[in-house]
Amino acid sequence: MGLSSPNRIVWLYFAALRRSVLDLDSSNGDDERKGNIAICIMLAVSVVEAFLNVLFRVAISEPEFASKAPSILKDLESRKSLDFKLKDWPARVFGKGLDLEAPRIEAFFALKERRNGLMHFTSSHESLAVPGIGIDGLADTSVFDDLTPSDAATALEVAEDMVGELLRLRGIPEAQIPHALHAWTGRVSS
Questions:
Q1: Stretches in the chain below the pLDDT threshold 50
Q2: CA 57 to chain centre
Q3: Which of 12, 15, 135, 187 is the most buried (most CB within 10 A)?
Q4: Rounded Cα–Cα distance for residues 50 and 35 (Å)
């Protein structure tokens, strides 16, 4: 069994995401670059879920939130969806839910939807006709083809911001948020 601090996995995933964003320029060609951008988007959403799981697992071990332990542990065991955890856990444990209309929260849910489009891609069945030629069975890959390097950097920023919002709900004072973000994500305050 490997034991470490609760933030270790989250920190390492954020470090991998940050490296991936920085390494985009070393991609060989546009398709490889877009593939790496897609991976950044997928990892950005995944690292927020890992953080969420750890944050609440740690919180329920504290006396203030211990009464919520059985239900959170049950949710963790049954692998509740990310949407469920984001919409339910903060209010259930901390007494205050996420403001789903706040720009940072909306940005995360938009990122998650984009990730879903990439991860749960299903082929369409498009036809293309030009004089003398008809092609049937083409897939609309615009969800992939429209990716740009700025999408990867944005994914990192949105993930870090979402962690910050969850830390605020946890009760971390605003003045300590930059330090807490550094501890969990490696984000360096400017």
A1: none
A2: 18
A3: 187
A4: 22
Per-residue model confidence (pLDDT) at position 124: 65
Helix 30-59 / helix 8-22 crossing angle, nearest 10 deg: 160
Is 130 inside a domain boundary? yes
Count the domains in the chain: 1
CA 174, distance to chain mean position in Å, is 22
CA distances to 16, 81, 186 from 25, rounded to whole Å, are 16, 34, 22
How far is 1 from 153, CA to CA, in rounded Å? 35
What would the 3-class secondary structure string for 60-107 be? CCCHHHHHHHHHHHHHHHCCCCHHHHHHHHHHHHHCCCCCCCCHHHHH
For residues 121 and 174, what is the distance between their CA atoms, to the nearest angstrom? 39
Position 126 scores a pLDDT of 66
- DSSP assignment of 14-72 equals HHHHHHHHHGGGG-SSHHHHHHHHHHHHHHHHHHHHHHHHHHHHHHTTSGGGGGGHHHH
pLDDT tens digits, one per residue of 83-112? 999 999 999 999 999 999 999 999 999 999
Q: Does the residue 190 lie in any domain? A: no
Residue ranges making up the domain that contains 99: 8-185
